[in-house]
Amino acid sequence: MIIVMEAGATKEQTNEVIRRIKEIGYTAHIIQGVERNVIGAVGDERGKARLQSLESLPGVESVVPILKPYKLTSRQVKPENSVISIGDIKIGGEKVIIIAGPCSVESKEQLMETARAVKDAGAHILRGGAFKPRTSPYSFQGMEEEGLKILAEVRDEVGLPFVTEVMNPREVDLVADYTDIVQVGARNVQNFSLLKELGRLDKPILLKRGLMTTIKEFLMAAEYILSQ
To answer: Of 67, 5, 74, 52, nearest to 33 (Cα)?
Structure first.
């Protein structure tokens, strides 16, 4: 369900709606809109009737059921386009943002040369893999934390934020300590344990779509991240 607040709803009225949502046993997700705020209430479908009663609370304009299986990724909840800020960079705005860099970090010299080249070419964000999924277990698997340190050093010297992939739920906090954007590769789009761990972070997540992933499955993967 989504609770649409009135345009002039106060912070106290919004907080009371959130309190009541939690009291019913749902999780509240507030989405800041241009003209008004919307609160997504996610939880057991059997509690929908109790949520409907929130329509009588001060500051509430309407309570609307979400018909799609994905809730927080629905345009019903957030009709406006999302704009993600990475420092002064706005992803999703009017300007096209270019992310470029090597598949894997192999040395500081290699990454520094590449970072300067992609910046000179007009790229805004550096890409580089510290952990690399490979088809063969004998192939180079990445420099791991040493690769993250190199990425951070190059970011500071060149002035480009960077994105890198995380593959293991146990490494989420380690990667998040270094990177500006956390990437989920196509192979992990339905690694639900990983997606739930990423939902704890207060960082942008770049979720790649798997080769055989349907649009519905892709949106549900994003839902795992947003619902945490």
So the answer is: 5
Model's pTM, two decimal places?
Answer: 0.81
Q: 59-88, pLDDT tens digit by residue?
A: 999 998 887 888 888 888 888 888 999 999
Average pLDDT over the chain, rounded to whole?
91
Residue ranges in the chain modelled with pLDDT below 70: 47, 138
User: Which DSSP string do the residues of 7-34 spell out, in sequence order?
Assistant: TT--HHHHHHHHHHHHHHTPEEEEEE-S
- Name the E strands within the chain: 2-5, 27-32, 37-42, 60-64, 84-86, 89-91, 99-100, 125-127, 162-165, 181-184, 205-207
Helix (H) or strand (E) holding 118: helix 108-120
> Which residues, at least 6 apart from 204, have a Cβ–Cβ distance to it below 8 Å?
84, 86, 91, 180, 181, 182
